[in-house]
């Protein structure tokens, strides 16, 4: 039977088809050719989803990298309890060396992504975390392990510090210029959170059940590293055509402000990673009766403050906010000195929370300065070159800033050994912060300075 209808025929309303990504070719090994996130049709037609998926798994890998990088900061204060006979100077060496190695690895990790592919290198860098995790579990299982062996195993944790550079480089290729800052901010904040989370979780893991089981601090990261590698292999992508650009680094090396910003970044990110590494040991040694397990709050607050610093810097300017953060760092160090002299745990702890907030805000603010400095006074035709220089500066500043994670614990160790107090170290840090603030003002805000009108 045939059904008919009378009257005019009407067609259902047309539904606009979603725009199709243009120029993308997917090849075996999850390689993508023709990637151009600044092409609106490609970005709206599926590119955004691809970029966000890669960002999510990149954050996981970087998060685990920071966890492994920071895990010795939690283990070291418990070593005497586990039967290890170590001086305070040796304990601070074990805290400082992972930062030294991680900072050094950041440059080669940056170039690894274009060479191997972002997905492939995330798999490799995740699997590399098995080495420091396994070495830690083995080294702390016996109190007879020589200090030199402990130091070598701690140095291997630097693999985790390198993950930041490769992760940031990889994600920068996936997002358009208009969304790159937000994506990189989320990526960085997700990684930084690893420092606080590891200081929260590992102390609980090593005491679960009977006795102190420090080897668990390494063992828990073995399945997590395997999971990260598997997830990257299954869900991430490599981008064809992203080549290592030595020219960007060459342009940055020749630019004097690269080194000035790197100096400032030691004061902001270097303070974050340095204080985060030292804080549990400082609480354990200076206030033995106090709850040292609260140390995780410092790194956690600092990580959360980082994206806030970037957002506020967009409104008031990176240079102004960097100066404010440096003054707040100096104020926090003054408060820590007062807490030590009064032997007040509450004062000391509160002062360090101020230090972490200031360091986190300063991280975002100082990074915000980089593109503005390289863009200042540049004609439209030279903007691509300026962007390359800024990209190179980000890599260099990120590596040099991480050396603060070595300088601060070693500063505390030298101060305690030579003066029997942390006060000289904190006094030195105050002086450095004030010098950094004056340098920032003189170059970027002082009336008459060449860049004072450029909204740095």
Topology, number of strands: 3
**How is the CATH topology of the largest domain named?**
Growth Hormone, Chain: A
Helix content: over 70%
**CATH class categorisation of the largest domain:** Mainly Alpha
The CATH homologous superfamily name of the largest domain equals MFS general substrate transporter like domains
Structure description:
With 456 residues, the chain is mainly α. The chain has helices at residues 40-75, 88-116, 118-128, 130-139, 147-156, 158-174, 177-207, 216-219, 221-235, 246-254, 256-286, 296-316, 318-342, 345-375, 383-402, 404-419, 423-444; strands at residues 25-27, 31-33, 238-239. The protein folds into two domains: 37-242, Up-down Bundle (Growth Hormone, Chain: A); 245-456, MFS general substrate transporter like domains (Growth Hormone, Chain: A, Up-down Bundle). The chain is built from 17 helices and three strands. The longest helix has 36 residues, at 40-75. Mean pLDDT is 90; it is low at 1-20.
Any descriptors?
mainly alpha; 17 helices; 456 residues
Write the layout of secondary structure elements.
Layout: E1 25-27, E2 31-33, H1 40-75, H2 88-116, H3 118-128, H4 130-139, H5 147-156, H6 158-174, H7 177-207, H8 216-219, H9 221-235, E3 238-239, H10 246-254, H11 256-286, H12 296-316, H13 318-342, H14 345-375, H15 383-402, H16 404-419, H17 423-444
Parallel strand pairs: 2-3
Antiparallel strand pairs: 1-2
């Amino acid at each position: 039977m045939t059904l008919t209808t009378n009257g005019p025929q009407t067609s259902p309303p047309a539904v606009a088809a979603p725009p199709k990504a243009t120029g993308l070719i997917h090849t075996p090994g999850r390689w993508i050719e023709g990637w151009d996130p600044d092409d609106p049709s490609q970005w709206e037609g599926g590119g955004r989803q691809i970029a966000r998926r890669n960002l999510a798994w990149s954050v996981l890998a970087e998060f685990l990298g920071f966890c492994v990088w920071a895990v010795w900061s939690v283990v070291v204060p418990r070593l005497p309890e586990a039967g290890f006979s170590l001086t305070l100077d040796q304990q601070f060496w074990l805290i400082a060396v992972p930062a030294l190695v991680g900072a050094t690895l950041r440059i080669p990790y940056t170039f690894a992504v274009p060479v191997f592919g972002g997905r492939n290198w995330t798999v490799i860098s995740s699997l590399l975390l098995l080495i420091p995790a396994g070495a830690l579990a083995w080294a702390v299982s016996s109190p007879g392990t020589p200090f030199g062996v402990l130091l070598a195993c701690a140095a291997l944790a630097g693999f985790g510090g390198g993950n930041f550079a490769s992760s940031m480089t990889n994600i920068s290729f996936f997002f358009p210029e208009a969304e790159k800052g937000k994506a990189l901010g989320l990526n960085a904040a997700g990684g930084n959170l690893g420092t606080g989370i590891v200081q929260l979780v590992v102390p609980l893991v090593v005491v679960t059940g009977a006795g102190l089981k420090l080897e668990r601090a390494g063992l828990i990261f073995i399945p997590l590293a395997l999971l990260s590698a598997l997830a990257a292999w299954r869900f991430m992508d490599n981008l064809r055509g992203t080549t290592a650009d030595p020219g960007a680094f060459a342009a940055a090396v020749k630019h004097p402000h690269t080194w000035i910003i790197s100096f400032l970044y030691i004061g902001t990110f270097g303070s974050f990673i340095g204080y985060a590494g030292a804080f549990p040991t400082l609480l354990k040694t200076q206030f033995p009766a106090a709850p040292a397990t609260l140390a995780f709050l410092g790194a956690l607050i600092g990580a959360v403050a980082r994206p806030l610093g970037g957002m506020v810097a967009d409104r008031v300017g990176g240079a102004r906010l960097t100066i404010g953060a440096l003054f707040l760092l100096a104020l926090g160090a003054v408060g820590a000195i007062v807490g030590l002299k009064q032997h007040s745990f509450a004062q000391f702890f509160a002062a360090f929370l101020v230090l972490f907030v200031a360091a986190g805000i300063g991280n975002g603010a100082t990074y915000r300065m980089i593109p503005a400095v390289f863009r200042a006074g540049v004609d439209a035709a030279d903007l691509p070159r300026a962007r390359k220089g800024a990209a190179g500066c980000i890599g260099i500043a990120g590596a040099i800033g991480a050396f603060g994670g070595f300088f601060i614990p070693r500063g505390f160790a030298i101060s305690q050994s030579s003066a029997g107090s942390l006060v000289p170290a904190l006094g030195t840090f105050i002086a450095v912060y004030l010098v950094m603030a004056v340098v920032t003002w003189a170059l970027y805000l002082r009336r008459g300075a060449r860049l004072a009108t450029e909204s740095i």
